[in-house]
Fold this sequence. Notes:
Elements: H1 12-22, H2 28-38, H3 41-46, H4 49-53, H5 58-65, H6 70-83, E1 88-92, H7 100-103, E2 111-116, E3 125-130, H8 136-151, E4 155-158, H9 164-173, E5 179-182, H10 196-205, E6 207-210, H11 222-232, E7 236-240, H12 247-257, E8 261-264, H13 275-282, E9 286-287, H14 291-297, H15 312-317, H16 321-326, E10 330-332, H17 333-338, H18 344-356, E11 360-363, E12 367-370
Parallel strand pairs: 3-4, 3-7, 4-5, 5-6, 7-8, 8-9
Antiparallel strand pairs: 1-2, 2-6, 10-12, 11-12
Helix pairs in contact: 1-6, 8-9, 11-12
Amino acid sequence: MRDTDPTPRPEPDLCSWLRLSRAPGVGRITAAHLLRAFGSPDAIFTASRDQLLAYVTPAQAASLAAPLSSDTARLVDTTQAWLHQPGNALLTLFDPAYPPLLAQISDCPLLLYIRGRQDLLHGAALAIVGSRNASVQGRANALAFAQALSEAGLTVVSGLALGIDTAAHDGALRGCGSTVAVVGTGADRIYPARNAALARRIAHEGCMVSEYPLGTPPRPEHFPQRNRIISGLAAGVLVIEAAAGSGSLITARMANEQGRDVFALPGSIHAALSKGCHQLIREGAQLVDAVDDILLALSMAPLVRQAAAPPAAAAAAEASPLLTILGNSTMHIDTILAHGAMTAGALSADLLALEMAGVVARLPGGLLQRVHR
């Protein structure tokens, strides 16, 4: 009898991959072990209980033998419709287009939901991570390093978070290497909402990656988990501003376990956001203060730069007595006044002019910091 239902039937392979990725009690590592043993998800689901028990526990075998759930069936339909939209793709672990560096890590994702340029997942890449509550100088550093690395031909990988991640994506899009955003939600969602415009631009000019099924909302446990993908896609990780105990340190340690290079920018000994970077340097991360430090470590040619004249406002600010006192340090307003070279009124006027020129930034706690761009 001829089937008159106009609704497209899900491809069996897609259904099996999604079913395997969602099987309760069967994690990524176990699933990958089963795939190596049986050759495909279809073969896993047609295997006998005894065959499965050679590789998994009885509870896991029962989970794999359970019929397709209604939730997974709906996800298959949703995913199939999403894949029909331009620029969207789903890469399985066995797909020739799966990122080769990521495939090397022990707990690589079974599935990658992709929006944008898949070619970026195969070129040379460096990850940049750091604090969500970054300082003005930290964001300026992330933007400058990302743009220079992009100009050198590297793809910049980050996590679309506020702060350092946002600046890194922005800087990379200004160069020729572009950027990859690894998100902790479904690929059809954007988090945080403040980065909606940036996410759309990355999906158009760069690449967005998620291992989570479509519709997955932001959950706290997803962001540490996605960090292994950020480091796994890159030859190394650069940490710019991280407090002690920061999630960026998790990414750096995962990178180290994956055999990737770890780089860290040092900062003021008085800044809480420098503590994590200094800790990484003590543990063996490579201290960098210029992009060429990274390029040389990756056996790439240093950048050829042309000297640019400073903006007029910044040039005029060089004559400021406040900058003379501040130097390259982070300093409290009371300490500057105690120096005795400026009155409170003169300091207030000079500070206003320097802030407008983008040369000095206020930090929490009454601290001032010179901003280098």
